[in-house]
Write the structure tokens for this entry.
Amino acid sequence: MKLSARNTFKGKVTKIKTANVAAQVHVDIGGGNIVTSVITADAVNELGLGVGHDVCVVIKASDVLLATE
């Protein structure tokens, strides 16, 4: 599969918190960094995601916001 997105990170699923419709998937991308993705619960099932599975995090966004105190 080829993607136009340039922000990709390989990682390992560390936690999945599923509700009725949505799920939070936590992915350890190394260096002490965790990326949390909110996807549908159906997508978790369709992808066969589970803790310990290797995944690729793909970030495609038109805006990235930063804030400081």
Notes: The chain has a mean pLDDT of 93. The chain has one domain: 7-59. The domain at 7-59 is CATH 2.40.50.100 (OB fold (Dihydrolipoamide Acetyltransferase, E2P)).
